[in-house]
Amino acid sequence: MASLTGVSVGFLGLGDVGRPVLRRLKARGAEVYATSRSPALRYKMARDAVNICNTPAEVAAHIGNGIIFMMLSQDTLINAFMEGEDGLLASLSPGTLIVDLGPTSPDIARKFSQLVRKSGGRWLEAPALGSEQAAAEGRLTIHAGGEREDFDRALPLLQEIARDIDYLGKIGAGQPERAG
Questions:
Q1: CA dist 140 to 18, 158, 177, Å?
Q2: Is 141 helix (H, G, I), strand (E, B) or coil?
């Protein structure tokens, strides 16, 4: 177990698997900035000493050019968290790496990868597979797609939450095609 002391991490998506992932990063010393659309979840995470932000843009402002994890269960949530004056794209710093841990469709992954790059940021798709318990124990499975340098940058953090981690290639390779 590596120490993450001095590492600032952003986190969007405090669902059943997202919360234990966030807690693992926090327990290893990371300074975590998070937001959720749910006031109840924001309150719950604030009690766990997580820095709660009101908007995704505020998370991005705190992280600077660090790493922001997204664990959102639906493409519509990704649109809501990324776009608009309160979205991540509004405050993204050059060099920020967004790691998408959710089951994002390949089309949305490619769309936001391009928009993030136009804003000077980076994008790595890394869908996390596993249960709430697997997340709490750091036993998720991750199949990543994106630039190799982005994968290498995120790897120390991914190793804290997943046991099986594979790099599969460019954007679109990490997200399985979903049946229509």
A1: 11, 9, 20
A2: strand
DSSP state of 17: T
- Residue 131's nearest CA partner among 53, 20, 7 is 20
Question: How many angstroms separate the CA atoms of 52 and 128, rounded?
Answer: 23
Name the one residue in this structure whose structure tokens are 């001095």.
Answer: 6
Distance (Å, whole) CA 127 – CA 17? 12
Cβ-Cβ contacts under 8 Å for 165 (sequence gap 6 or more): 141, 142, 144, 155, 158, 159
Determine the Cα–Cα distance for residues 58 and 92; give it in Å rounded to an integer.
Answer: 10
- Domains defined along the chain, listed by start: 8-167 (3.40.50.720)
pLDDT in tens, the chain (180 residues): 578 888 999 999 888 899 999 999 999 999 999 998 888 888 888 888 899 999 999 999 999 999 999 999 888 889 999 999 999 999 999 999 999 999 988 888 889 999 999 999 999 999 999 999 999 999 999 999 999 999 999 999 999 999 999 999 888 766 665 433
For residue 158, the cross-strand partners are none
Asked whether the whole model's pTM tops 0.85, one would answer yes
CB 128 within 8 A of CB 162: yes
151, 110, 109, 101: which is closest to 129 by C-alpha? 101
